[in-house]
Amino acid sequence: MSDIIEPSPVEPSPRVALFLSYLGGGGAERVMLNLATGFVQSGFQVDLVLAKAWGPHLWKVPSTIRVVDLGASRPLLSLPKLARYLKQEQPYALLSAMHYANEIAVLAKRLAGVSTQIIVTEHNTLSSSIKQIKGLKRRLIPLGVKRLYPLADSIVTVSKGARDDLQQWMNPGRAKVEAIYNPVINPDLYQKAAIAVDHPWFQDGEPPVILGVGKLERQKDFPTLIQAFAQVRSQQPCRLVILGWGPDQAELESLIARLGLAEDAALLGYVDNPYAYMARSRAFVLSSAWEGLPTVLIEAMALEIPVVSTHCKSGPEEILNQGEYGYLVPVGDSDAMAKSITSVLQGEYPVVDKDWLKQFEIQGSVEQYLKLMGWSQKTLVPSPTV
Q: What is the domain-level CATH number for residue 173?
């Protein structure tokens, strides 16, 4: 986007904007794209506003969504340009996600002096994630949350556990926090899952594959998964695949080699379509130390793949209905994880009620956001499916 934003023509429907620093490959970014699509389907015009228009998912933005590039070299430098966008376009609401996009969104409204509703969304369990942050950000993020979040029109977390955590962390009397589950399940998920995988481990007749997906970092605690896999493999033939990239790759590769697992465990890096791998796995395992609402767990359940998850804060307990729809094991407990994986491989796992999964579909999430905005969806004319 150039420095001068051309005013939009008279529009037949209201505009909603979603603001991110950039369109990375994480779960929060996928969620925002799903929300954007859901708003379009509900009859809104939608802008995806990026501090800088780059990232591995940028090409996935449908043509029905306008991408606004603020062209900021750093997220914090996007503040004046976002304020200018709000003043000229005046969308009905702006949803932001992650730091520092949330804080910038609140400040931009004040600077622009507009009536646009600002909805900040927290996608993690903040008290846990803050402990892992180093340097200046460890001081700035808590300050921004406590001082700026209460100035937003609405604060949303992606799970009830994350809501309770944030509410207490901020000071319960200062602001009300709402919980709205992520819009995870959509037709595109099943279409991508049906695409063939050419990796030899996923062919017929091969040993069962245990799958993990996520950034290779401390939060995902893949060492526990690798150690659990070592126990399971000592009892029966099976393989482990982990999809994702991150700073801990060398450490995880070293652990795999040290445990003698190199022939049966592989880090395949980032893949654009993890669902094809997921659909052909015998078990999906979430080994995280903490989460907000782990979308990959929901995606695996939607694809009818048995799941094993740590009982971490927060999200898994809610997603699995206190363990009714999958195994919950203590964080960092490789023995309990191995036992649950073995049970899955032996065919001992629950079947997920499809009605349970409806709360994680796009339309349900969009309707909750519309309700939060005070908007009656009946006044909109739904757009064709995008």
A: 3.40.50.2000
